[in-house]
């Protein structure tokens, strides 16, 4: 959803930054790795220690680097297959660390065991949303779209954590349960999209005709 509506506005900011970094000899893969390492370290250091606002703020700063590496590749004029795989892999690692950190907080300093279920659902379903798309594309099928993609998951989780850290009651509860339900729904949407793509490609046999009475 945000990929459709916000891409142009975001590019207006990231494109100049990407060109500036490329002009100084910085490689996109370096920015990708730095952003991932920073996100993982911040999520697993601040969140379990009950420093939710600081954790959300620092993770957000490093996540923004993920927008810059793509702009750098465009400014350089080409991308590499390795860079694409590295970027996707690092996205999964950063996402996993964020929701693992929130789960750790729920089961530890936060004392919110039931909320930990929502955090685990977000962790697993978020990875599945990305995996289904990658696996479908590897099979020559399509699994685009869905209610919540990576951008929505990060924004809702980080805003919820940050507001909870500032003392807004139930901000994280609302964010995680909303994300859990929406992410599970998105998994179903993508499975349905793969089925339609396979059917259109002739990979799914038609249903057996009803027997004559």
From TrEMBL:
<comment type="function">
    <text>Catalyzes the conjugation of the 1'-hydroxyl group of D-myo-inositol-3-phosphate (also named L-myo-inositol-1-phosphate) with a lipid tail of cytidine diphosphate diacylglycerol (CDP-DAG), forming phosphatidylinositol phosphate (PIP) and CMP. PIP is a precursor of phosphatidylinositol (PI) which is an essential lipid required for cell wall formation.</text>
</comment>
<keyword id="KW-0443">Lipid metabolism</keyword>
<keyword id="KW-0808">Transferase</keyword>
<keyword id="KW-0812">Transmembrane</keyword>
<feature type="binding site">
    <location>
        <position position="87"/>
    </location>
    <ligand>
        <name>Mg(2+) 1</name>
    </ligand>
</feature>
<keyword id="KW-1133">Transmembrane helix</keyword>
<comment type="subunit">
    <text>Homodimer.</text>
</comment>
<keyword id="KW-0444">Lipid biosynthesis</keyword>
<feature type="transmembrane region" description="Helical">
    <location>
        <begin position="52"/>
        <end position="68"/>
    </location>
</feature>
<keyword id="KW-0594">Phospholipid biosynthesis</keyword>
<protein>
    <recommendedName>
        <fullName>Phosphatidylinositol phosphate synthase</fullName>
        <ecNumber>2.7.8.-</ecNumber>
    </recommendedName>
</protein>
<feature type="binding site">
    <location>
        <position position="69"/>
    </location>
    <ligand>
        <name>Mg(2+) 1</name>
    </ligand>
</feature>
<feature type="active site" description="Proton acceptor">
    <location>
        <position position="91"/>
    </location>
</feature>
<keyword id="KW-1208">Phospholipid metabolism</keyword>
<keyword id="KW-0472">Membrane</keyword>
<dbReference type="InterPro" id="IPR000462">
    <property type="entry name" value="CDP-OH_P_trans"/>
</dbReference>
<feature type="transmembrane region" description="Helical">
    <location>
        <begin position="21"/>
        <end position="46"/>
    </location>
</feature>
<dbReference type="InterPro" id="IPR043130">
    <property type="entry name" value="CDP-OH_PTrfase_TM_dom"/>
</dbReference>
<dbReference type="InterPro" id="IPR048254">
    <property type="entry name" value="CDP_ALCOHOL_P_TRANSF_CS"/>
</dbReference>
<feature type="binding site">
    <location>
        <begin position="29"/>
        <end position="32"/>
    </location>
    <ligand>
        <name>a CDP-1,2-diacyl-sn-glycerol</name>
    </ligand>
</feature>
<feature type="binding site">
    <location>
        <position position="87"/>
    </location>
    <ligand>
        <name>Mg(2+) 2</name>
    </ligand>
</feature>
<keyword id="KW-0479">Metal-binding</keyword>
<comment type="similarity">
    <text>Belongs to the CDP-alcohol phosphatidyltransferase class-I family.</text>
</comment>
<feature type="binding site">
    <location>
        <position position="91"/>
    </location>
    <ligand>
        <name>Mg(2+) 2</name>
    </ligand>
</feature>
<comment type="pathway">
    <text>Lipid metabolism.</text>
</comment>
<dbReference type="Pfam" id="PF01066">
    <property type="entry name" value="CDP-OH_P_transf"/>
</dbReference>
<dbReference type="InterPro" id="IPR044268">
    <property type="entry name" value="PIP_synthase_PgsA1"/>
</dbReference>
<feature type="binding site">
    <location>
        <position position="80"/>
    </location>
    <ligand>
        <name>a CDP-1,2-diacyl-sn-glycerol</name>
    </ligand>
</feature>
<keyword id="KW-0460">Magnesium</keyword>
<feature type="transmembrane region" description="Helical">
    <location>
        <begin position="154"/>
        <end position="187"/>
    </location>
</feature>
<keyword id="KW-1003">Cell membrane</keyword>
<comment type="pathway">
    <text>Phospholipid metabolism; phosphatidylinositol phosphate biosynthesis.</text>
</comment>
<feature type="binding site">
    <location>
        <position position="74"/>
    </location>
    <ligand>
        <name>a CDP-1,2-diacyl-sn-glycerol</name>
    </ligand>
</feature>
<feature type="binding site">
    <location>
        <position position="66"/>
    </location>
    <ligand>
        <name>Mg(2+) 1</name>
    </ligand>
</feature>
<feature type="binding site">
    <location>
        <position position="70"/>
    </location>
    <ligand>
        <name>a CDP-1,2-diacyl-sn-glycerol</name>
    </ligand>
</feature>
<feature type="binding site">
    <location>
        <position position="66"/>
    </location>
    <ligand>
        <name>Mg(2+) 2</name>
    </ligand>
</feature>
């Amino acid at each position: 959803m945000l990929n459709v509506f916000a891409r142009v506005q975001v590019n207006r900011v990231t494109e100049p930054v990407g060109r500036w970094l490329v002009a100084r000899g910085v490689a996109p893969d370096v920015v990708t790795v730095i952003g991932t390492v920073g996100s993982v370290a911040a999520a697993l250091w601040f969140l379990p220690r009950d420093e939710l606002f600081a954790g959300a703020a620092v993770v957000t700063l490093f996540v923004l680097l993920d927008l810059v590496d793509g702009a750098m590749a465009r400014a350089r004029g080409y991308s590499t297959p390795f860079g694409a795989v590295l970027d996707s892999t690092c996205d999964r690692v950063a996402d996993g660390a964020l929701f693992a950190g929130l789960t750790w907080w729920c089961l530890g300093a936060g004392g919110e065991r039931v909320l930990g279920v929502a955090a685990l659902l977000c962790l697993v379903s978020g990875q599945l949303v990305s995996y289904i798309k990658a696996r479908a594309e590897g099979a020559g099928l399509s699994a685009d779209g869905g209610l919540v993609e990576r951008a929505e998951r990060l924004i809702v989780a980080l805003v919820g954590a940050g507001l909870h850290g500032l003392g807004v009651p139930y901000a994280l509860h609302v964010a995680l349960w909303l994300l859990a339900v929406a992410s599970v729904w998105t998994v179903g949407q993508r499975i349905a999209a793969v089925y339609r793509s396979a059917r259109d490609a002739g990979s799914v046999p038609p249903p057996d005709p009803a027997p004559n009475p």
